[in-house]
Amino acid sequence: MPRPLNIACLQTRPMPTMESALAEVLPMAEAAVLAGAQMLFLPEYCGGLNSDGVRLCPPSQAEHVHLVLSQLRSFAAERQVWVNIGSVAINGSDGKIINRGYMVDPKGDILGSYDKIHLFDVDLSEDAVYRESDTVAPGSRARIYDTALCKVGHTICYDLRFPGLFRDLAHAGAEILCCPAAFTKTTGQAHWHVLNRARAIENTAFVVSPCAVGPVPGGGASYGHSLVINPWGEILADGGDIPGVIHAQLDLDLVQATAARVPSLRHDRPYKLADSKEKDVA
Question: Per the domain annotation, does 268 fall within a domain?
Fold first, then answer.
């Protein structure tokens, strides 16, 4: 018996303020619900994003008064829809922020949250240097949401390059692995599609990755191409390089069906790295 789930990814632009971010997000969210989406997925830093060239400087507030979080919770309750808030910037300690995502239920309650574990500290070139850890405190706990519709594992952007995190979420029962992002245009052109497809194939799960698109105020650009990928690695939807909403219907029974065809999760085995001088024993 098929278990259909209608989802939508909101491919928003990086906006300089919370107010401008909401002006971008809410009309897309309304359109997605009117088109039948039961669960919405938003990008990383959907509450606003700025850059000083080296560091990402998103507008932030304390969680209990966060404008974007409260408005999206109200929207979820008013429209009775699940909303995965890819991430917003939450005030942390020591002057740093937390890159935190949320799952909000159709009553507007927060089912859970996830703090981005792996921070984007890379030197792509002399002119493209990024130091997310200068302003962001890393998380330390993986997160899976057991919603009324499905189980969702939450990761964020640079986490995509760490397959062990996705493997653990799949072993914990995640049917959808979501990776909201503001992937850079440079790395997105080279790696975005292949990494997302790999995470789906190796874990026999759906991958849903909403990605911001367009210039980041202050410097840099996000790649776009929000993706929905099935457990066989087939791309069901691609957001391209303009803002908008992409829709897909997921048959959640495909997760078990694909795992039955290629039961790689059940074939994981413990091992150790042999010393170079160690000899195998027949």
Answer: no
The pTM (predicted TM-score) of the whole model is: 0.95
Here the CATH number for the domain that contains residue 131 is 3.60.110.10
- Amino acid 1: pLDDT: 63
- 44 a catalytic residue: yes
The tens digit of pLDDT for each residue in 31-64 reads 999 999 999 999 999 999 999 877 889 999 999 9
Distance between CA atoms of 254 and 272, rounded to whole angstroms?
33
Closest Cα partner for 226 from 202, 246, 200?
A: 246
What tokens were used for 167? 């493997």
Whether 274 is covered by a domain: the verdict is no
- 277 falls within a domain: no
Annotated catalytic residue: which of 24, 46, 57, 116? 116
19 is in which domain, residue-wise? 4-263
Tell me the sheet residues that pair with 258: none
Structure tokens at 197: 């497809």
Number of domains in the chain: 1
Task: Give domain status of residue 161, yes or no.
Answer: yes
Q: Which of 9, 24, 44, 178 is catalytic?
A: 44
What's the chain's average pLDDT? 95
- Of the candidates 157, 178, 179, 211, the residue annotated as catalytic is 157
- The answer to whether 157 is a known catalytic residue is yes
pLDDT tens, position by position, 153-183: 999 999 999 999 999 999 999 999 999 999 9
